[in-house]
Amino acid sequence: MISQFVILSQHGDILLFKDYRGDVGKDSPELFLQKIRDLSGGLAPPAFHHDGIHYLHVKHNSLYFMATTRSKVSPFMVIELINRVASLCKDYCGVLSEEAIRLNFPLVYEILDEVIDFGYPQGTSTDMLKAYMENSPVLVTEGTIPGLFGAERRMVPSTAANKSIMGPAVSQGRKNEIFVDVLERLTVLISTSGSVLRADIDGTIQMKSFLVGVPEIKMGLSEDLTVGKEDKRGYSNHAHVDECSFHESVDLSEFGQNRVLTIHPPQGEFPVMKYQASGDLPSLLPFRLFPTVNDQDNTRDMELVLKVRCDVPSTSHAVNVVVRVPVPKSTTNVSHQLSGPGQSVEFKAQDHVVFWSIKKFPGASELTARFKLSVPNRTPSTRLELGPVSLNFELPMYVCSRLMIRFLKLFDHEQSYVPFRWVRYVTHSDSYVVRI
Question: Which residues of the chain have pLDDT under 70?
Fold first, then answer.
């Protein structure tokens, strides 16, 4: 079914090439990369057909996981297989990065040998494969691992969960640990008048287990959590999601009454719960933008003033904030004035974009940037080329759905130990656009 499986870096380097059937040429990775580069912005569809060959791929952490086949197979099944292989690589290597794949090439090759036989998928269970793995993982040093939670260090380093499930035994110093991450991605569109046209949350409760035995875990969610669009309470202190789905290892017998999940976690990383919310969110949006444009007809300069307010509580903060401002194509120079330290501005003339970067943005505060654009030969339509403004950011220890984990309890009648339990929250911007 699967002819080849390839892992490529974002620069086009072939990190791993596995040929199962020999019916597709060895130049398939080059053809795949050429196809991606020919598309606008490099946004290739997950599945496409070229010269009798089906190419299917998923991008994880700047790595392309690609499979080829000449057979008429279900693309959804192949995409799911690719995602499972990527998850296995992360479970066994500790982190999914180009360096981790290079250092653990024998281990990843062994995973592909066990998971796919002559192009046909076999078992993809992390627990099942553990008994057949002969190679030991080579862990990437902490300094080179890209942390998920930026500067957040209040509970545990952001790289603490980036280790292999094939670590040493508990008797040799390994900790019994369980990591739970509540991750949310925001999609927001705001009109020129400031009204919210779209506000969506795509959330996941992600768990990574390094526990001995087969314990039972009780996870308590917010008691006031409501599920379903008909049970919406608007802007309030109540946690709310429109819809949700759960992993097969989750028992929901206590969820309806007490909002408690009973979990028998497999080893490795898996999504306990996926959820979505849209419309009137339980909390205010994290950022508001107040733009002012001064384009007097008798000058060649345009002045743009951006005031950004962070509406998260003062105890929280945003990190790695980048404000992206498209400018008119005829812009030749951009000068700027910023309201404080820890900020920088970059003008990319070839892309006609200004980037305003903020390392740390405290909650309940405002920052202002003043830009002067040199735009010769302006026309009445030049103003229309300004914007829309988009924001990329990361909010540690804050989620817009107000979904919280009340407790995390472990029950195991065969093992007697107290595990280390870590719970973290983070919100990322998926698409946060403001029209000006």
Answer: 40-43, 141-163, 165-174, 230-237, 296-299, 413-417
pLDDT digits over 245-277, tens only? Answer: 999 999 999 999 999 999 998 888 899 999 999
The crossing angle, in degrees rounded to 10, of helices 105-115 and 75-93 is 140
| pLDDT tens profile 310-354 | 999 999 999 999 999 999 998 999 999 998 889 999 999 999 999
Picking from 265, 8, 262, the residue whose alpha carbon sits closest to that of residue 125 is 265
Coil, strand or helix at 301? strand
Strands (E), 70-174: 116-117, 120-121
Let me know: does 18 contact 8? Beta carbons within 8 Å.
Answer: no
3-state secondary structure of 191: coil
Look at the pTM and tell me if it is higher than 0.90.
no
What b/e readout covers 281-314, taking b as 16+ CB neighbours within 10 angstroms? bbbeebbebebeeebeeeeeebebebebbbebee
Supply the DSSP string of 215-265, one letter for each residue: -EEEEEE-TT-EESGGG---SSSS-EESEEEE-TTEE-TTHHHH-EEEE-P
CA 25 → CA 17, 53, 68, 307, distances in Å? 12, 10, 10, 55
Q: Which of 421, 396, 345, 363 is nearest to 178 (CA)?
A: 421
Nearest to 88 by CA among 137, 141, 54: 137
